[in-house]
Amino acid sequence: LKWFRRPRKRDLQGSPPLEHGSLVVAVHVRRGDVKSTGPLSFRYLPNEYFLALLDSLRDEGSHRGWPLPLDVHVFSEPESDASWDEFLSRGVSVHLGGSLCDVWEHLMEADVLITSKSSFSWVPAFYSPPSSIVVFTRFWHLPLRDWVVVDDVASMQEDAMSTRLPPSSSTGLVRIPPVPRQAPAVLVNTTHLAAIVFDRLGRM
User: Which domains does the chain have, with CATH numbers?
Assistant: First the structure.
């Protein structure tokens, strides 16, 4: 806990983007053992999902005449079954590997944090400052009430744990029933996400 509470480049209260010259967007893309096929595929989000979110943010910023450039950083793992070329062609900085503390530092300091279906990004989202906007993709961890929850993937099976995992007798895993969902403060699809984000930024 001391590590989470120590002073950072942006203090724990955060600072609005207008004070540090750009809109920093951090994206965690869960890869490694999570692939598009296999027992963990229910946690896989394709590159197209994240690209759609980023494109919507850029389009909305341009439409509103947002005065600051978007500084987008993707954090993931070297092992991936998809190319990073489409991110790079959009001017996105892609960071593969790195120490846990360094990655969490970047995720916590972002103005906008886009999570994966992963505890790895849920933890820094939980400890991010009040000025950060967390864009959360639903999975078994519940969102905080001020997070923006993207519902485009809501049709992914709520019972994926029981339908896609191999039988417990062969894996030693216990099948877990779906977790009841807490009603979030904001539930949006990708079309409305950018408008919500920029509305909040305009109030800072």
Answer: 18-156+182-202 (3.40.50.2000)
